[in-house]
Design a protein that fits this description.
The protein is of the alpha/beta class. It contains 12 helices and 10 strands. Helix 2 packs across helix 3. The longest helix is centred in the middle third of the chain and has 13 residues.
């Protein structure tokens, strides 16, 4: 465990592996503020100087801006994603560019999407001498970044690079985390890995896709449908500026390819059924899904997959929902 130090102190050299080292799955752990020592390129003082350079004295709460002060967290994000030479990486909300710097140093070409025009200009200025960065000044939830990623991946393929998938590595604003996850996870055709720094509570909920807890929601079924999720480590709130009211965590989504999705006639129809089921979370499925079929048909379908006729949505796994959906659409 790292040594404790006062929040916002200058960090020492990273105790974590460099970004190009292969990632090895570990048990979830806690990441604390770095010990006091030699100044780092992206500590509290460097962050404040970067903000002041553009006349921005404080981060904007409306954009959920909380900047990372601990460079070992950025190194861990890159390490978990296995970022290496020649990779194409999408970064959402680069801020002052501390994570961008780690990704570029690892040899990646970065497509950074930044809504704040001041921060977009700051990142462009900071990395103006490199051809490894493309900055898109747009709202990520409305950004057409796909074409840019495909173009970069096609250039790699033309040079004989076999790996045709990009990666996503980001410290994203907590207030858009669910929207970001919903947008990215179905993109297994261009991304292999999505590694995000999210609010700890959100990361725990998204990684727990057992569907056997009272906290199960449609987003859990969505995550399990499109990916294999791992909660990696917890990051204390004192690693951020300004300090948020909650801790954060690193989560990794290993995206599935289309051929590996559960077999359903229509993903749109499948998730429509899942959402309907959870709209009446405390209701039995024979009631919440009766707009699809008669209660007797729903009961028959439940019996055929060895589930009680009184089943509620929180009691079903992804596989249960898939089998139930496929039976009901044939009914």
């Amino acid at each position: 465990m790292l040594s404790l130090s006062p929040p916002l102190s200058r960090p020492s050299h990273s105790p974590f592996p460099v970004a190009t080292r292969p990632y090895v799955r570990r048990s979830p752990r806690l990441l604390l503020p770095r010990a006091a020592g030699a100044a780092a390129a992206d500590d509290y003082h460097a962050t404040v100087r970067s903000l002041n350079a553009k006349g921005r004295h404080t981060p904007r709460k409306s954009l959920g801006q909380h900047y990372m002060l601990n460079s070992s967290v950025n190194e861990e994000l890159a390490n978990v994603a296995g970022v290496g030479e020649g990779d194409v990486v999408l970064e959402i909300g680069p801020g002052t560019g501390s994570l961008t710097n780690v990704l570029i140093n690892a040899g990646a070409t970065v497509v950074a999407v930044e809504k704040d025009p001041h921060m977009a200009m700051l990142v462009k200025d900071r990395f103006g001498s490199t051809d490894q960065l493309m900055v898109l000044q747009e709202d990520f939830t409305k950004c057409h970044f796909r074409s840019h990623l495909i173009s970069l991946l096609q250039k790699r393929a033309s040079r004989g690079v076999e790996q045709n998938y990009g990666k996503v590595v980001s410290n994203i604003p907590f207030n858009i985390s669910t929207d970001v996850v919903k947008q990215l996870l179905p993109m297994g055709d261009i991304f292999s890995d999505v590694v995000l720094l999210l609010q700890d509570e959100t990361a725990l909920r998204l990684a727990d896709v057992s569907s056997q807890t009272s906290e199960c929601r449609p987003i859990n079924i969505f995550v399990d449908f499109y990916s294999d999720a791992d909660y990696i480590l917890k990051v204390e709130r004192s690693n951020f500026f300004p300090q948020p009211n909650v801790d954060a965590a690193v989560i990794r989504f290993k995206l599935k390819q289309v051929a590996d999705y559960p077999p359903v006639p229509s993903t749109k129809g499948f998730f429509s059924m899942v959402n309907s089921a959870f709209n009446g979370k405390r209701k039995m499925l024979r009631k919440s899904l009766q707009h699809m079929c008669q209660p007797a048909e729903i009961e028959a379908a439940l019996r055929s997959i060895s589930l009680p006729v009184t089943s509620r949505p929180g009691e079903l796994t992804l596989d249960d929902f898939v089998r139930l959906h496929n039976l009901l659409v044939k009914a």
